[in-house]
Specification:
It contains 7 helices and 5 strands, in the order βαβαβαββαααα. It is an alpha+beta fold and about 130 residues long. It starts with a strand and ends with a helix.
Length: about 130
């Protein structure tokens, strides 16, 4: 079974959101959605995975990665002294290829962070109204 750690979720969430919107923070709710979508995506590929989001993991994250991220209120923010390139260099080289593919999957990211274009949103609403 593959484990997806909080550091993987936060780093990749911020990378993907920033690359699409220039926003360098994610909320806790968005991160939970992202984690669920990543695990679901892996499951469709017959890969068993689980999220490691325990209190100990959050505490470890705060202490170990404060150089990169600020835990604030209801979310996570990129430290202003770091760039997206710094995060890519530090967090994307040390994970399984399958997990990385799920973390960057357009459908996973768009659904998790509600990043659909106006045209895509209109199509989705039109489909919902048909049923």
């Amino acid at each position: 079974m593959i484990k997806v750690y909080l550091k993987d979720l936060v780093a990749n969430a911020i990378i993907e959101v920033a690359s699409r919107t220039q926003r360098t923070y994610v909320t806790g709710r968005e991160l939970n959605n992202y984690g669920r979508e990543v695990i679901a995506n892996l499951k469709t590929k017959n890969i068993r995975a689980k999220l490691e989001l325990s209190k100990e993991e959050v505490s470890k994250f705060r202490n170990t990665y404060q150089e990169y991220f600020i835990v604030s209120g209801d979310g996570f923010q990129l430290n202003e002294n770091k760039s997206i390139e710094n995060v890519i260099d530090s967090f994307r080289g040390n994970m399984s290829y399958e997990v990385l593919l799920s973390l960057v999957d357009d459908q996973v990211v768009n659904k998790s962070f509600n990043l659909y274009s106006p045209k895509q949103k209109h199509r989705m609403l039109s489909r919902k109204n048909r049923y």
